[in-house]
Amino acid sequence: MQPTIVVRGEAVREVPPEIAVINVSVTARGKNKDAVLARLTEQSAVLRAELDAYGEAIERRETAGVQVYPDFKKSEYVGNVDTTVTVADFGALGEMLPRLAGMAQVSIFGPWWQLRRGSKAGAEVRRAAITDALDRAREYASAVGARIDKLVEISDEIAGAGGVVPIAARAMAFDAQRGPAPALELDPQRQTVQASVLVRVTITEPDLSEQSQ
Fold first, then answer.
1. CB distance 16 to 200 below 8 Å
2. Distance from first CA to last CA of the chain, Å, rounded?
């Protein structure tokens, strides 16, 4: 049976984000429930029109939640609609944030900088991790007077994680009720991705004659 070496390869890269995600919340308050619903519907329509104006700069838009509930402490009704917006054009994002934050009864949370699912950055860091593992395997084989013969297996060290772990990005928040924000120049936060793989290889018969002397 041929000798086998199992090694772990690792790689870490910092790459620019590909998308930014923000959450936009529209809120309405009042003593009359029907009036709150009407105001919430009207404000939501204004927000939708504002977002529509950005066209292809917005890659994805989804309603994340709708709430209408009584606030017993203030004896009023509260309604809000949350919208998740994914933006790929960071220049447009810098214009979008202060404009949306300047709207009445609108709060903004974000941006959360991200990579897309299946990003090339993940594939590149996995290849780098495999290269690292093979380099280590060659070093181990050389240390016992052998060389790599055949590749037996490559696997992610963490099952189901794809071998790539994106580090969470920070977020900032804007509250429209505090007044419009100035024009923003954004510095997209670089994303750290890392991969860890296990590589199993067979090696030629070791020459341990020098080690035994």
1. no
2. 25
DSSP-derived secondary structure letter, 16 = -
Written as one string, the DSSP assignment of 50-101 is HHHTTGGGEEEEEEEEEEEEEETTTTEEEEEEEEEEEES-HHHHHHHHHHHH
pLDDT in tens, 120-167: 998 999 999 999 999 999 999 999 999 999 999 999 864 333 344 444
Q: Where is 8: in which H helix or E strand? A: strand 4-15
| Token pair listed for 155 | 């696997």
Full set of structural domains in the chain with CATH = 1-17+116-213 (3.30.110.170), 19-114 (3.30.70.360)
Token pair in block for residue 213: 């002397």
pTM here is: 0.74
- CA 163 to CA 160: how far, in whole Å? 8
Q: What is the helix (H) or strand (E) element at residue 49, kind and residue range?
A: helix 33-52
Q: What are the pLDDT digits (tens) for 11-33?
A: 999 999 999 999 999 999 999 99
Query: Which tokens go with 5?
Result: 């070496």
How much helix, strand and coil, in percent to the nearest 5, is found in the chain? 30, 40, 30
